[in-house]
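Appendix C reproduces, verbatim, an entry submitted by the partner laboratory led by Prof. M.T., so that reviewers can inspect both the input and the predicted structure.
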Amino acid sequence: DVFTITIDPKDAKDFDDALSLRKIGANLWELGVHIADVTHYVRPGSVIDEEAEKRATSIYLVDRTIPMLPERLSNELCSLRPNEEKLGFSVIFHLNDKAEVKKSRVARTVIKSDSRLTYEDAQTVIETGKGDFSTEILQMNELAKQLRARRFANGAINFDRYEVKFNLDEKGKPLGVYFKESK
């Protein structure tokens, strides 16, 4: 059994990516990065494929999202919701405790998420060390910090930015604005 979670904004409806982690040996981890496989449902040249190509991306507005794919696909059939088996494409890495990649592979997979976390949920676990799946989340964070440090040491550019968010009332009128910092 492989621990698998999605981490998305609290208002997300489509959970299209996931992370997994399991210990496979002394100082060795298997880390999976997964994305929903929409190709099972969207055939090349189909009407949905052509419309998705025109749209190119989902559009995230202040009060709603206009998905690239029909909502039934993006929010249901392909959404990596907890406790549901879904088809995916995955990159699986074998990493040691220093986050050095020892082996990797790309595969078609069946993903079953254990839990859906919000960014805030995951950040709380990282900051407090407490909460559901804290051991796994803290280990993923440790590996991520090492990979990030190595990327910057190798010349990556830091694009830290603030995201503008709006507080809306029940009618969709703005009540205020705030900036969310990437962590």
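The radius of gyration is 18 Å. Additional entries are available on request from the coordinating office.
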